[in-house]
Amino acid sequence: MPCILIPVIVTHTIDELHGALAQLPGKRGLVMTMGALHAGHLSLVEKAKAECDHVVVSIYVNPLQFGPNEDFEAYPRDLAADTALLRGAGVDVVFAPTDHVMYPRTPLVRIDPGPVATILEGTTRPTHFAGVLQVVHKVFNLTCPDVAYFGQKDAQQLALIRTMVADLDMPLIIRGVPIKREESGLALSSRNVYLSDAEREDALALSATLRAACEALAAGATLREVLDLAATRFEASNLRLDYFAVVDRDTFRPLALLGHPMPEWASDGETGTASSTISPETLLCAAAAWAGTTRLIDNMEASCANAQ
Ligand code: AMP
């Protein structure tokens, strides 16, 4: 039997999207992206393909999740290249709306993402997670997925989406997908295109420090020791640290924090750390740093310290 390649249906409006979805019965997987696709995004698609009857990918650079001085205008956009990649990956429907389709007027009803949105990424990007949850909730409503796939790369985002789905009884399953890295250890990101060759080299200190911190935790280091290790490594690098944190991977409660003040609700009063002894089973090390003017984020679970 010859293999029949079913073309990806590219939709831009809600009517087009619903028309395409109506032809696709069965279990539906959703992957939300901002485009500029790379192998990290495709790993989410691959997982969705393996588990679902059809896969919908949204491509939308959501203005609500960018702050006033962030890279909304400069964010890389190439719908033709993205569509070609998704066609090759066997995606059924692409939803690439305009701002007018997504936000015909400024939304009055907003999602309040709660206290976890005020720390780490939320300290530097105070309106970010409210904007993320607003668009995620809308795209869930528009596409009605059975399962939605999100990268562990954005671990705080993943934790907040899981919380929203649980707290609002949203009828779908959320799957986290491991971080895809270059051989060097650098986590794939659409923003890596901003890096010069030298900055790309400098950026390796981020994953290397996270790996060293996770290994130290697994070997029984205290939180204070891990903070000192991270501080020394970032000081010796060409990166400008925003924050380094050890968090509980499920609740995202910070247990140790460098670069930002420990939030009152997470602290037991000790400077920078919430307790001095910990078990590495439920810990995640997360960090953000600038390589030149490019802000990079990464994280690693203590229990997979040796994983690439
Ligand atoms: P973005 O286009 O950056 O909004 O990312 C869309 C989705 O892809 C999010 O769920 C990200 O967490 C995920 N993602 C981005 N980079 C990676 C990566 N290197 N590995 C795995 N997932 C990723």
What's this, in brief?
The chain is of the alpha/beta class. The protein has nine helices and ten strands.
Bound ions, cofactors and other small molecules, one mention each: adenosine monophosphate
- As a percent range, the share of strand residues is 15-25%
What is the rounded Rg? 20 Å
Largest sheet: 6 strands, parallel
- What is the first-to-last residue Cα distance? 40 Å
Description:
The chain is an alpha/beta fold and 308 residues long. It has helices at residues 14-22, 39-51, 79-88, 99-102, 121-124, 128-143, 155-167, 197-218, 223-236, and strands at 9-11, 28-33, 54-59, 93-95, 147-151, 173-177, 240-248, 254-258, 283-291, 294-301. The strands form two sheets. Strands 1-4-3-2-5-6 form a six-stranded parallel sheet, with helices on both faces. The protein has a four-stranded antiparallel sheet with strand order 8-7-9-10, with helices on one face. β2, α2 (39-51) and β3 (54-59) form a beta-alpha-beta unit. The structure holds adenosine monophosphate. Adenosine monophosphate is lined by residues 33-34, 40-41, 43-44, 150-151, 153-154, 177, 179-180, 187-190.
Question: Which terms would index this structure?
Answer:
six-stranded parallel sheet, binds adenosine monophosphate, alpha/beta, 308 residues
Describe the SSE topology.
Blueprint: E1 9-11, H1 14-22, E2 28-33, H2 39-51, E3 54-59, H3 79-88, E4 93-95, H4 99-102, H5 121-124, H6 128-143, E5 147-151, H7 155-167, E6 173-177, H8 197-218, H9 223-236, E7 240-248, E8 254-258, E9 283-291, E10 294-301
Parallel strand pairs: 1-4, 2-3, 2-5, 3-4, 5-6
Antiparallel strand pairs: 7-8, 7-9, 9-10
Helix pairs in contact: 6-7, 8-9
This protein binds adenosine monophosphate.
The site of adenosine monophosphate has 17 residues, from helix 2 and strand 5.
